[in-house]
Prior knowledge:
Elements: E1 4-7, E2 10-13, E3 18-24, E4 33-39, E5 46-51, E6 58-60, E7 68-73, E8 78-83, E9 92-99, E10 108-109, E11 113-118
Parallel strand pairs: 2-11
Antiparallel strand pairs: 1-3, 3-8, 4-5, 4-9, 5-6, 7-8, 9-10, 9-11
Amino acid sequence: QVQLVESGGGLVQAGGSLRLSCTASERTINNWRMGWFRQAPGKEREFVASIGWSGDSTYFADSVKGRFTISRDNAKNTVYLQMNRSKPEETAVYYCAAQPGLGLRWAYWGQGTQVIVSS
């Protein structure tokens, strides 16, 4: 069972930056697409960004394009989400997820890390 552990959440002022990390318990994830999602209070969970196994294929929600970047270090079994020019409406619990095969569902999830963007 793959375990994902997020870290790096916290309080950041609007316009500021924060880097989230997601470390997996197994190297298996190095062959998988990894993603970040977020869920704000009272809202459904939404996709933020994803990255392919080699790091070449990335996708972003329109709302974060140009401000967030996603990267991975397969030697460390870790995926990162760099949040820049953060907005108060991006206050949410951020989750890391793993997709174990092309077209498959996001099968593994972390416990989430809270991000609060103050205005």
